[in-house]
Amino acid sequence: MAEADASIYTRLGSVPEREWDKGAGLDALLEGAREPFVLRGLTADWPLVEAGKASAQGARRYLLDRARDRPFKVSIGPPGHDGRLFYDADMEMNFRVGTGKLADIFAGIDKAEELGEARTVYLASIDMQSHFDGLDEANSVDLGDRDPIRSIWIGTRTQIAAHNDFPDNLACCAVGRRRFTLFPPRQFRNLYLGPIDNTPAGRVVSMVDFDAPDLAAHPRFVDAMAEAQTVELEPGDAIFIPSMWWHHVEGLEGFNVLVNYWWRRTPAWLGQPQAALNHAILAIRDLPPEDRAIWREQFDHYVFDNDASVTDHIPETARSILAPLTSETAGRLRAFLLRALSK
For the JmjC domain, which residue ranges apply (predicted)? Predict the structure, then answer.
């Protein structure tokens, strides 16, 4: 970090820590939560955590013993890579993506450790149930009636640019240490977001280099940092990241493993808001200003305000998708959109 820019990090807030009762489950803490919090020691009794505390090699052996014989997707940085999985000067990815057996990937990490080489290897968002036998069952968190996506993230030292996710997220540090820097959803303008359709991992990311922020190019980043919260997680700690909160994530040790759970607070048959934003860019953004203004009013009327004036004059049985959506009406709407987009 440039010395002139270091002052923006000196007043960083901390992510609040919450007490938890393992016997009562996490429902009371998670239900309706819209602010992040840390749960120290939530997964301290996981066998994976215990294996990692013994050694990084022990953690890798534990994972290999349960890995299925199938390809694993892996991102690899070139020699001298600093662990920041990002764009290069031409806005291409500064890493390559391939597939391999987990044993071969781990053998490469073992060799790099023996030679004292810094090598960037990152297995991101690997589905635990399809890639491992018994790993999820032996290392799990009781989330009540939630049906989350269960993913494991494995890698060397890495920096993942600030991004957000639509689902709620419980991220559990299993091996190594993780640093999270979080920003409220409203700070998106001050994070200087990059392209929507050309991203390192499917989500738009901040273009700011957190290690060396260029405040001449990104002056509003100071305002984002004024509302930032940060925390370092030890093995066994977890953090709850609410939907749409921006988070910059760093793997701080030579070998790090994170397990996370994603779930939605809305039915799975509802659409993805990002798809609606992409379609609005296609259909509305480049219209003449007076046309955009008309469509803005209609979006407010049908989507953002959506008060009784939208439907009171329509017989209740004839309101179709203007009524609260059901799985049936959502399916009809999705089919209509697919037909429209295919023309």
Answer: 110-280
Instruction: Indicate whether 324 belongs to any domain.
Output: yes
- DSSP code per residue over 221-261: HHHHHHT-EEEEEPTT-EEEE-TT-EEEEEE-SSSEEEEEE
pLDDT digits (tens, 9 = 90+) for 254-283: 999 999 999 999 998 999 999 999 999 999
Separation between Cα atoms, residue 228 and residue 12, nearest integer Å: 6
Tell whether 233 and 312 lie within a shared domain.
Answer: no
pLDDT digit string (tens) for 225-254?
A: 999 999 999 999 999 999 999 999 999 999
What range does the domain containing 326 cover? 273-341
What is the C-alpha separation between 38 and 41, in angstroms, rounded?
10
Flag whether 242 is in a domain.
yes
Q: Give the C-alpha separation, 147 to 150, whole Å.
A: 9
